[in-house]
Specification:
Elements: E1 4-7, H1 13-21, E2 26-30, H2 41-48, E3 56-61, H3 66-73, E4 80-83, H4 89-93, E5 99-105, H5 111-116, E6 123-128, E7 154-156, H6 165-172, E8 176-179, E9 184-186, E10 189-190, H7 192-203
Parallel strand pairs: 1-2, 1-8, 2-3, 3-4, 4-5, 5-6, 6-7, 7-8
Antiparallel strand pairs: 9-10
Keywords: Amino-acid biosynthesis, Aromatic amino acid biosynthesis, Isomerase, Tryptophan biosynthesis
Domain N-(5'phosphoribosyl) anthranilate isomerase (PRAI): 5-200
GO molecular function: phosphoribosylanthranilate isomerase activity
Length: 205
């Protein structure tokens, strides 16, 4: 089974359609105001209205207020959620949507136990830990910390790029990989060539 690809940090329609054209399985939209890749609910839902079928739109939140999350989700039944903060499993599940839970990995973590804390998650995303930064650091973490078997499908993030994604897939065998900064030409703007190359490398890994 080939590895899936999520292109995260989408801020405009052109980048979204380029990613879809080259074979992305999912697109991530960042609803965290401190991120340089932040997009408003209105702009994101306008993009979603023009996406082709079978593309999964993922709404990323970091300890967001319920009314703000609802303002995104009301735009489409297609949204699934990626929780990137300190949300509990019960809080995540309360939205009655398919969700992923992101965990930031550092040495000494019992990853299996952390994953088991989210029994309602459809998948677990593992990202690099950096103090005070909830994600999108562009840093690679030590893949050897990941257990060989987890109770949930694994989405691997953290500093992935065309230069290292095949090595990551070979080492970790994730269900999917997630990239943002590694395929950008500037913050929030994707490089068409990097997006195309990244997806090609994943699909041929």
């Amino acid at each position: 089974m080939s590895c899936r690809v999520k292109i995260c940090g989408i801020t405009n329609l052109e980048d979204a359609l380029i990613a879809c054209h080259h074979g992305a399985d999912a697109l991530g939209f960042v609803f965290y105001s401190k991120s340089p890749r932040y997009i408003s609910p209105e702009a994101a839902n306008a993009i979603l209205d023009q996406l082709p079928p079978f593309i999964v739109p993922v709404a990323l939140f970091v300890d967001a207020q319920r009314d703000f999350i609802d303002s995104v989700l009301v735009g489409s039944s297609r949204w699934i959620i990626q929780f990137h903060g300190n949300e509990s499993d019960a809080e995540c599940a309360s939205y009655k949507r398919c969700f992923y839970k992101a965990l930031r990995v550092k040495a000494g973590d019992d990853i299996s136990s952390l994953v088991d804390d989210y029994p309602n998650a459809a998948a677990i995303l593992l990202d690099a830990y950096k103090e005070g930064v909830p994600g999108g650091t562009g840093d690679v973490f030590d893949w050897s910390l990941i257990p060989s078997e987890l109770s949930k499908p694994l989405v691997l993030a953290g500093g992935l790029s065309p230069e290292n994604v095949q090595a990551a897939i070979e080492r970790v065998s994730p269900y999917a990989v997630d990239v943002s900064g590694g395929v950008e030409q500037s913050k929030g703007i994707k490089s068409k060539k990097k997006v195309q190359r990244f997806i090609e490398l994943v699909k041929t890994a």
